[in-house]
């Protein structure tokens, strides 16, 4: 391996003229400061390590067997603060199983605030362990094997009396095809209720408004509610209301109810771009009248109108914001109006006009796929002619690309954004952890969509970078396998040049034993040899037309990379040499 050829790929990654990703390399040298990140606490690092190992340092199979798990005797009693963190971290990482949940018995730990997210496969039997704890808050997101009625049966009477928060987003409230919302009436202390993405309808909403007398926080986003008139019974106490994607039958009646909720501090009426709740002229007039009234939601601190076609005058919106000194946030993404060019408003805005607005969109709307698609497209346009380091913006895209790793259109936009934010010399200014993450995301996209040519091209533009290939830490054999498959599959000349360049670099850093795994790919070596022959014939015809002997600048980069790739792939590797 010490004799393998390791060329630079700078020439191979040069974008073709007229491409969306092309730009001046000279401008890329502009400097930008990196924003420092807050390191995790020691406790968080310990929890992260323990949960990444599936708690096997703390718990194991019981002597009785039967697939049960319990904490080891040497493990002390876990107080609620620690037990909650461990359990919730397991769930968030997708590692919480029925046996692991069964280990959290009240004689070994105390649970108070349980968050079962990314744990869709938990069974009803395992959830019964919750009945032995006194819970204050419970989150059960998208549980597939239980419904509201069976979940309530897994809670103790003490939990039902003292629970203040219940999140059932995405979990069915149906029992025998009928909603059973009446069982929520036993939660007398409930102050926060999330029923987003459930089968909630208007009758269920009426039961909630009548029975839950302490409710101040309600989320009924993406439900079957078409009339929010029952909310008038809660107008003196309701403070937080989420109505994302709710489709009212009568928009004017909808607005009338909102105008009566005088104590609201948070209102989310954001929508999907495919809907137009306030499209009628008379409704738009009502919207303008409400926003010009000083008595409309005077205590508001958080307003989200993203995705709505409000047809609001920017001056009127500015007047609305300035008349409410308590207002701190305004969601204004995917609306017709633009705030760019206007004097800066004294609130945080989630929108598409500035970098800070885009970062807020990436954080706040991460669970909305359509929003993320539009936001990444906006980030691409925003950074298309930008050559300063934007690490905050780059980091904000990472969770989105991980979450939607199997959504092709979103990955297509995401890989283009990664290129814009790491091209040329910008990659050398990134910290090692960020570099590694970028390469991992690019390789995941390539692996998930091997036949999507434009996505592969975006990924190659990012990956064909000396900094990434030489300094980043990643699975080089996997990378080599992906680019070799692409080399066999695609014929686009620019892609071929990048592919052979990456092969020539990465193959020099892979052991001979691993290279032997590629020795059976006859099509790969046939492709490389054919490339050498084609480029040689082309080079002969070009040299014949040169008025003087060729210099280094006249060498064909594709031929050079193809020869280097063949050199490295066959070095001390007998199966490859035979091919």
TrEMBL record:
Domain Zer-1-like leucine-rich repeats region: 208-311
Keywords from the named record: Ubl conjugation pathway
Family matches, as InterPro entries: LRR_dom_sf, LRR_Zer-1, ZER1-like_C, Zyg-11_UBL_adapter
Residues of the Protein zer-1 homolog-like C-terminal domain: 404-578
Gene3D superfamilies, sorted: Ribonuclease Inhibitor (3.80.10.10)
Pfam families listed in its UniProt record: LRR_Zer-1, ZER1-like_2nd
GO cellular component, one term: Cul2-RING ubiquitin ligase complex
Protein name: Protein zyg-11 homolog A
């Amino acid at each position: 391996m010490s004799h393998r050829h390791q060329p630079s790929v700078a020439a191979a990654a040069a974008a073709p003229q007229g491409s969306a990703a092309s730009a001046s390399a000279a401008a890329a040298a502009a400097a930008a400061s990196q924003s420092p990140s807050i390191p995790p606490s020691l406790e968080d690092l310990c929890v992260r390590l323990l949960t990444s190992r599936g708690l096997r340092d703390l718990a194991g199979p019981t002597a009785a067997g039967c697939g049960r798990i319990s904490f080891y005797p040497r493990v002390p009693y876990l107080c609620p603060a620690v037990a909650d963190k461990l359990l919730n971290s397991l769930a968030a990482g997708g590692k919480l199983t029925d046996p692991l949940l069964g280990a959290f018995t009240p004689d070994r730990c105390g649970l108070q605030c349980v968050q079962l997210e990314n744990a869709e496969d938990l069974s009803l039997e395992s959830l019964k362990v919750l009945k032995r704890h006194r819970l204050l808050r419970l989150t059960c997101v998208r549980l597939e094997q239980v419904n509201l009625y069976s979940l309530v049966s897994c809670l103790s009477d003490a939990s039902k009396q003292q629970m203040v928060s219940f999140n059932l987003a995405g979990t069915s409230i149906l029992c025998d095809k009928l909603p059973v919302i009446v069982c929520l009436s036993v939660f007398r202390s409930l102050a926060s209720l999330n029923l987003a993405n459930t089968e909630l309808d208007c009758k269920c909403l009426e039961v909630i408004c009548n029975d839950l007398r302490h409710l101040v926080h309600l989320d009924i986003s993406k439900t079957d509610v078409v009339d929010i008139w029952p909310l008038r019974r809660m107008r003196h106490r309701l403070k937080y209301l989420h109505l994302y994607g709710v489709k009212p039958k009568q928009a004017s009646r909808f607005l009338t109810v909102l105008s009566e909720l005088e104590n609201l501090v948070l209102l989310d009426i954001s929508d999907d771009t495919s809907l137009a709740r306030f499209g009628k002229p008379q409704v738009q007039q009502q919207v303008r009248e409400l926003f010009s009234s000083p008595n409309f939601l005077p205590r508001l601190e958080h307003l989200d109108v993203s995705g709505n076609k409000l047809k609001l005058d920017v001056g009127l919106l500015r007047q609305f914001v300035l008349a409410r000194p308590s207002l701190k946030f305004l969601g204004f993404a995917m609306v017709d109006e633009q705030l760019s060019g206007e004097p800066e408003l004294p609130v945080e805005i989630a929108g598409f006009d500035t970098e800070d607005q885009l970062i807020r969109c990436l954080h706040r709307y991460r669970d909305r796929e359509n929003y993320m698609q539009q936001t990444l497209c906006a980030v691409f346009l925003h950074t298309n002619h930008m050559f300063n380091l934007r690490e905050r913006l780059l980091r904000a895209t990472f969770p989105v690309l991980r979450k939607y790793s199997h959504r092709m259109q979103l990955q297509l936009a995401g890989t283009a954004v990664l290129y814009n934010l790491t091209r040329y010399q910008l990659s050398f200014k990134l910290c090692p952890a960020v570099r590694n993450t970028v390469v991992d995301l690019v390789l995941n996209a390539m692996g998930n969509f091997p036949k999507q040519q434009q996505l592969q091209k975006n990924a190659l533009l990012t990956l064909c970078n000396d900094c990434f290939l030489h300094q980043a830490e990643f699975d080089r054999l996997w990378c080599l396998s992906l680019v070799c498959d692409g080399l066999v599959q695609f014929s686009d000349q620019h892609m071929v040049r990048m592919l052979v360049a990456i092969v020539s670099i990465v193959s020099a850093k892979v052991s001979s034993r691993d290279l032997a795994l590629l020795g059976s790919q006859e099509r790969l070596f046939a492709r490389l040899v054919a490339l050498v022959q084609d480029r040689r014939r082309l080079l002969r015809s070009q040299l014949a037309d040169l008025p003087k002997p060729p210099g280094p600048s006249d060498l064909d980069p594709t031929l050079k990379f193809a020869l280097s790739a063949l050199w490295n792939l066959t070095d001390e590797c007998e199966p490859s040499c035979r091919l």
